[in-house]
Amino acid sequence: MKALIQRVKSASVVIDNKRNGEIGHGTLLLLGVEKDDTEAKADKLLKKILGYRIFADEDGKMNKNLQQVDGGLLIVSQFTLVAETSKGLRPGFSSGASPEKGEQLYDYFVAQAKTLHKSTETGVFGADMQVSLINDGPVTFWLEV
What we know:
CATH superfamily: D-tyrosyl-tRNA(Tyr) deacylase
Number of domains: 1
Strand content: 35-45%
Distance between the termini: 6 Å
Number of strands: 8
CATH topology: D-tyrosyl-trna(Tyr) Deacylase, Chain: A
Mean pLDDT: 97
Largest sheet: 6 strands, mixed
Low-confidence stretches: none
CATH architecture: 3-Layer(bba) Sandwich
CATH class: Alpha Beta
Order of helices and strands: EEEHEEEHEE
Radius of gyration: 15 Å
Shape: globular
Number of helices: 2
């Protein structure tokens, strides 16, 4: 699993001109699922994301995690994160999960996130989405498990 996380002042996802998910201060998570991913990997990645210290403490240092700042989490499926880009000028997707497996693991990840973090919003797996954000910092990290 691959995740691109961004510390945001706000973020939202729109599908068919309807707002599907929206958060204020928190983390926008773009999630890519690979064919060898498992629920155990999903659990490990989620634990890392919720505990990752990217928010400022009282001294302005990145020492607080999402849960400590009571921030929102917006999870958006992003198949292109698993693209192979080292060769040529066209991305390859042979390492990506099948649509069925990708959706199953995405749904599992979202369910676990909603259990562990009350302020969780989502996009829709496989949908054509418009994602808006105000990146705070900017602060962006690439995480893999």
